[in-house]
Fold:
Amino acid sequence: MAFNIAVAGKGGVGKTSLTGMLIEYLVAEGLGPILAVDADANANLNEVLGEEVDLSIGEIKEEVNHAEMNGIPLSPGVTKADFLQLRLNQAVAEGNGYDLLVMGRSQGAGCYCYVNGILKNQLDILAKNYQYIIVDNEAGMEHLSRGTLGKIDMLILVSDCSRRGIQAVGRIKELVAELNLKVPVIKLIVNRAPDGVLNEGTAEEIKKQDLDLIGVVPLDQNVFEFDAYGKPLVQLPADSPAKMALRDIVDKLEIIKNSKK
Structure:
């Protein structure tokens, strides 16, 4: 069974960037097989990883809905369930040392309950094929509250230096306790800290929220420049401050050791 790592936090704090660099680091360490999952309706993990995505779960759902509404056969002699599973298998894209599955968005108004359900079922099916599943969550807490991710072995909370960001991840930790999810390892990473140093106000809020800080990633001009020109962040130079800091943090997380417990 796969070791499941979930990354969560408020929108705009850089969790997708850190998720991409985490995946790249584990691949470089020869760990795997790895399934990277972009569980955000506004998917962009593939851009961080430098991968093209041809098919998402949201697009598959629309494809099936369109066929049913217009009376178009999905495929001769194939049930809806079998067709859906075939397309979901095709949605798992092969990346550089990992596979990638993207939830994506549905068209029009309405909640993402059905798409979330498909994602949960697919993760249950795929878990036996991978040693690690790393999930980049949406900005909210829906996947946690709905149990979309199933078993979570390690939860990495990501915040910027703002009190609001720290309070947001504090609420996520509280939700995990309320839902009795029994996550063995919950750690906090503070991202985009000026000079890689926390100010007293941020440190005070972390203590107030009873969060376990594993490391701080400095504000890195390279990251802004790569984003501005649409360059994959996994191509950051090895001496990039953010990349170096994340490498140290991953070592402290002891992912290999924790996954063998």
